[in-house]
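Encode chain A's predicted structure.
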Amino acid sequence: MDLSALLLLCLAVLSGAQETIRPLDAHTNATEKHKREKPECAGKGCEPLQKRENGGAKESGVVAKRAPYQQGDDKLQLYHLSLGVLEATAAYRNSMGYGSYGGYANGKTPNTFTEYLLSQGYMPGPYKVCAPPVYCPSGYATKFRTFDGSCNNPKYPRWGQAKTAFNRLLAPAYSDGVSYPRRSVYGGYLPSARKISAVLFDDKFAPDDLWTVMFMQFGQFISHDMSMSSKPHYGDQGVQCCTPDNSGALPPEMMHHACYPILIPHDDPFFSYFGQRCMNFVRSMTVAHPDCRLGPAEQMNTVSHFIDLSHVYGNSEQEANSLRLGKGGLLAYTYRDGRVVLPTHTTMKTACNKDCPASACYKGGDARINQNPGLALLHILFLRDHNRIASELYKINGHWDDERLFHETRRILVAVYQHIVYDEYLPIALGEDFVAAHNIVNGKEGYNAKSGYDAYVSPNVLNEHATAAFRYQHSTIHSFSELYGPGHYYNGSTRMSDHFECPAILEQGPLLDYYIRGMCTSPMQKADKFYSHEITWFLFRDGKPWGLDLESFDIQRSRDHGLRGYNDYRAMCGLPRAKYFDDLADLIAPEFIEKLAYMYKHVDDLDLTVAFLETHVKDALFGPTLRCIAGEQFYRSRVGDKYFFEHKGMPHSFSEDQIASIKKVTLAKLVCVNSDYIEEIQPDALHLITEKNKLVNCASLPGLDLGLWKEEPSYK
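Encoded structure for chain A:
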């Protein structure tokens, strides 16, 4: 059968009401070649992951009626289109004799099918278009970045846009060559994600010697700015893959096609005491290439890929408008009990836990804003700083209207934020020598000759970065948030899981400032192999004696997204490829190698999250494999962003004096000036208070000289 006839058949099948959908899902776009596999099982009594058919007429109807993209449709429409393209890809694979799973005598495995598609530059799909049209602004409007990230690069206007695919460093690993999660090289299921988490990542109190809780919290803030994968939902209903009491997975005939539950071993050291055998896990939404070409599943990043404060300002013009006050260039806010906080969320049901006071369930540019008080606190500080800068600009340029004030303020605050990320955060995370040698950061003063925009570098976030490398920071999470009053006196602590999805404590008396002092005074946990039980036993427990396991989710998500095994990324980053488990001893301690060999059947089966066990590179918080991935990401995020604050020679570029002023601002200054009543802070808020980093008066820290933005009114 030729390709055109095959695609006609696919279209006929896709329009029929009887066809059902297999599990789908994965992230973005690929470039290299390698092997594949597929996951999951929990040892004795483990139920294998089924080839689940779509378990309900309602969903079958939704999928069967897929149609080419209609302007105004949301991410769910894009997702449904991608499912159609993946079905057509699977049909094409079968017609070529590649089969669905495992190895074949003719050498046509799912692995070679993926490689074939990549080598052909993909094939035409069943539709002509799988994405809405992009309309780029012209004239003066090009001075400001769009909210959804589109049109940053006029040659490739979708690069960096929200609701587009993640990039990849290596081709995806799917056991069927299209979308089904990775298997062992021997064809069986990979070990249960929960079993791996329980065996490898225990809890141990290990405070860091150098870095504050603010470092950990700011890292999460950066992560939320850059990426968010979304799960399919219909109305307000989330997809459920486990029985109501979590005693097991739902029967295959009742499962949604996106279900990929985490099976909990019967002898789990914690969850077995509560009869928990299943953790709900729903696969991420996929998105098709704009031209609908056939290819393996790629997951959708639902937020702008840029480091642009999209989680403060929103990821579409409509969302941004809903967050604005509509006068003076200000963001909308709530004034309560003498302080400015974020607006109240109108749909608390989906934004906060059921016991959270409605007034303290916040609305911002990101759905995760209420996850924990420290995160919500940073959102409050950036909201306040936006409104502070806008008010000052209005005093300087009284002729600017609301629109001009808002966009100029956003442009300035994004620049300050980018400077903090690149000049304060990354040298600590990646190492000062590394970021300098690899052209990731520039000097701390003004322009630098190395700074430059490259229109041929895609800024889209790497799947390996978002789904694995940047999750290293989960080990730095402290079980308790320490509170410090005036004079930096310890004033108690709060348990993290008591405040998941409810930041109401920030509005209790002076506790907002107490939280700030605590984040800047107390040490984070070391970036190591240990994870607080607050996130591996009690995550989002919502009043129950047990919760979820974040590390299990990290492992399962890497499989869901088609990330290759750890060994492939070792080789990609220039490290020797391991043939046997003992070959890992160059970077992983013997005690962990023994545990890995106990759980995995082959060294090529290891998940990329195993890289969390690597010995750190000197003066960095990563081992070499994860630093290789994260370093590549932050290089791309800078040189691939036309609006990055240091780029010069463009109509929107800042002047050299403006750049120099921006680079004098520190996170400590931003925190201090936007607190309620804090008067003292150390100059480097990410570094613990020491003899070389003593408390100073906030007023002594240099601030932004907004006089450099003064503009004389023009009269015609």
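The chain has 21 helices and twelve strands.
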